[in-house]
Structure formats: structure tokens, C-alpha cells
Amino acid sequence: MIAAAPQVPEIRLHLASEITPIWQATEAWLAERNVEPPFWAFAWPGGRAFARHILDNPGLVAGKRVLDFAAGCGIAAIACAMAGAASVEASEIDPLALAALRMNAAANGVVLGTAGDVVGGVCRWDLILCGDVCYEAPMTGHIMPWLTAMASVAEVWIADPGRAYLPKSGLSPFGSYRIDTTLELEDRTVREVVLYRLAGG
User: Fold this and answer.
1) Is the pLDDT at 75 greater than 70, yes or no?
2) Angle, vertex CA 27, rays to CA 22 and CA 51, nearest 5
3) What is the pairing mode between strands 87-91 and 113-115?
4) With the CA atoms of 192, 193, 195 and 199 taken in that order, what torsion angle do they form, in degrees rounded to the nearest 10?
5) 151 and which of 32, 106, 128, 200 could share a cystine (Cβ 3.0–4.6 Å)?
6) How far apart are CA 167 and CA 190, in angstroms?
């Protein structure tokens, strides 16, 4: 269904309406085909915190080239486009997520570029947004060296809701948001999402 996520009523998204059934059914179907679970069907806390911050402070992205890294449903990318970014690119390794990103952009009347795996690529952005990316050790270990290198030539922001694998150093907090969640996806009904700047290496 098309709906607005809590805290971000300005943006309409194609989201899962019944979380547990769709997650279980889709996970089972995808596991048989070795495809990722439907992370893109939900507006996760990190992306919502970014979207709220950007819509409330549009000057932070206006005129900039922005990458929404591991964009999921694209809520942060859409917020950047609404706030006047010069260009917005959303990256996802899941082809289904890329299709969802394009649908969500169209639902909000904005234009997004989309890209697959950008890790290891050269920087073509002024700002890189990373919402809720440190949820697994392998993922964090794969992306952080590249993001740290990117932070030497661009701003890199990480929105983290308390995930276990967030790096312990190189991060400077600059904001926080209390984001409503659901016990179907999280272990609590509210997550405190901290926004950080990543230091370059």
C-alpha cells in the first residue's frame, strides 16, 4: 500500500501493510531462490531520521550531489530531492529494491538516479547518507573502509539506531531523533537514532 511513515508525513511510500505475514512469506520464497529479504518494504529508523532532519533543514543538501547508500525504500533520497539537492542517487544491491525506489520516487514526483553496488567506486558526490547500515558484522566490515575513504573527499553521514556493529571511533554526533518503531521489526517501540559525521581516513 502507499502510506506515509511515522515522523515523515510529507513522503508517501509503497510499504508493507502487514509486516509479519509479508516478511515470513517473502523470506521463505526468496530463501529458495537465494535472494535478499524485502528490507526495501519498510521505512527503517535511520532513513526516517535522515528524512526528518533534511526536510527540516533543506539548506544542508540544497545544491549538493547526494548519494543515499543502501537506500532501502528511498525515504532519505526522496527527502533530499524535495529539499533541492542538485542530484540524488540511491544505491541498492537488490534489483527489487531498485524497482521500489523508482516507484517511490514517482509517487512523490521527484527524480532519483539509481545504482547497484557502489562500494569500491570513486566519489562523485558531495554528501553520502548511510541510514542504519551497521546491523551485521560482515556488512560493516565490507563498507566501512570505503566509506572512510569517501569521507576524505565528501561528507559522510551515518544514522544509527543503536546497532551493535557501529564503529567505536571516527564518528561525531550532530543530531538525534526519537523514531517510532514496531515490535514486529525491532525489540522496542521507539528507537533513539543518532546522526553522525564520519571522519575521513
Assistant:
1) yes
2) 65
3) parallel
4) 100
5) 200
6) 22
Cross-strand partners of 127: 66, 155
C-alpha cell at 73: 525504500
Task: Return the closest-CA partner of residue 45 out of 197, 198, 191.
Answer: 191
Residues 159/46, Cβ–Cβ less than 8 Å: yes
Would you give the end-to-end CA distance of the chain in angstroms?
42
Q: What is the largest CA-CA distance in the chain?
A: 46
Phi then psi for residue 105, to 5 deg, are -60, -45
Q: What is the pLDDT of residues 121-143, one digit of tens each?
A: 999 999 999 999 998 999 999 99
Residue 172 and residue 197 in contact, taking contact as beta carbons nearer than 8 Å: yes
> pTM above 0.85?
yes
